[in-house]
Amino acid sequence: MRRLIKGSSETGSTNRVDVVPAGTLRFLEFAILELAQGDTFEGSTGSRECVLDIFSGVVSVAVNGGAGQQTFQNVGGREDVFSGPPTVVYLPPQSSFEIQAASPFRAGLFSAPATRSFEPALIRSSSVASKEVGQATFKRTVYTTIGDSFAAERVLAGETLNLPGCWSSFPPHKHDRSNPPNEVSLEEVYYFQIRPKTGFGFIWTYTASDDADGFNNVFVVENGDTVLLPKGYHPVVAAPGCQLHYTWVLAGEERRYGAWAEDPKYAPLKNL
C-alpha cells in the first residue's frame, strides 16, 4: 500500500478524481470533486456515509434519502482553505444527491461504511468549532467539523492549519489500538494544501517499537498530496515561509475524537 499519494493538477472543469479508492484502506475512501460555474454533479452514497468538505466556491446541495430530504442553498463561499473555517455537508447512507455550482467549486468527498440512517446535515463555517492548540513552534489552528457528538456512525472530520515552520499532530500521537479509555483504533487520511503552491512540508509516520509490522518513513508533502494513516504516529511540520493545511478524516470500529496515545518518548516536550 502506498502511504503517500501525490497530487494531480487542477482541471477547472467538472471532474471527480478518486484519490483513495475502494479497497485501499479498511474504512475510508476519498475523492476530489471540481465543478465549473453552472455545472451539476449527481451521485449516490450507497452503503457509505459521506462528508463533503467545501474547499472553495459556492454550491447548492440537494440530498434525498437516509432519514430525510434537504436542499442546502448557496453554501460555502471561502476563497480557499486558508481563508477561514470550512462549510461541510453530511450525506447519510442510501442517499442520492445533486450538487449545483454557483461559482468554480472544489471539495473533498470522504466516506466510510455505515448501516444506520441519519438526517442530511449542513455544518456552516460559523458553527465550526475552532481551537488554537499547542504553543510556540507547535501552535496550530484546528477546525473540528464532525466531532463525536455529531449524529453519524463512523466518521470524524476537520481541518488543521500550520503557520510557517510550525508543527502539528505534536507531540506525536497514534490511534491504532483498542486500549480503553485512552486509545481507540481509527484509521485516518490527511489531504494537504500549501500556500504558496510551490511550498512543502514534512510528515513523519512511524509505529510503536513493539509493532511486529512496523515502519518508519518521512515524506515530503506538497500541495495536493494525500497521506494514508492506517496506523502509527504522524507529526507534521510546515517549511519556513509556507502555510500548511490538511483536511483530516478518521473512521474505525469505535468513534471517539481525542482517544489517542502520545509517544511517551516525546510527550514531555510539550511542557518545556
Strand-helix topology:
Blueprint (H helix, E strand, L loop, with lengths): L3 E2 L9 E6 L8 E7 L4 E5 L3 E9 L1 E8 L2 E9 L10 E5 L3 E7 L3 E9 L7 E3 L5 E5 L6 E7 L9 E7 L4 E2 L4 E2 L11 E10 L4 E7 L9 E7 L3 E4 L6 E3 L4 E10 L8 E2 L10
Antiparallel strand pairs: 1-20, 2-3, 3-10, 4-9, 5-8, 5-10, 6-7, 6-9, 8-11, 12-13, 13-14, 14-22, 15-21, 16-23, 17-20, 17-22, 18-19, 18-21
Throw out a few tags for this protein.
272 residues, globular
Detailed description of the structure:
It is a single chain. The protein is mostly beta strands. It starts with a strand and ends in a 10-residue tail after the last strand. The chain has one domain (4-271): Jelly Rolls (Sandwich), CATH 2.60.120.10. It has no helices and 23 strands.
Spell out the CATH superfamily.
Answer: Jelly Rolls
Gyration radius, in Å: 18 Å
The rounded distance between the terminal residues' Cα atoms is 37 Å
CATH architecture group name: Sandwich
What is the strand tally? 23
Question: What is the CATH top level name?
Answer: Mainly Beta
Protein structure class? mainly beta
Mean of all residue-level pLDDT scores? 95
* Unreliable spans: none
Outline of this structure?
This protein has 272 residues and is mainly beta.
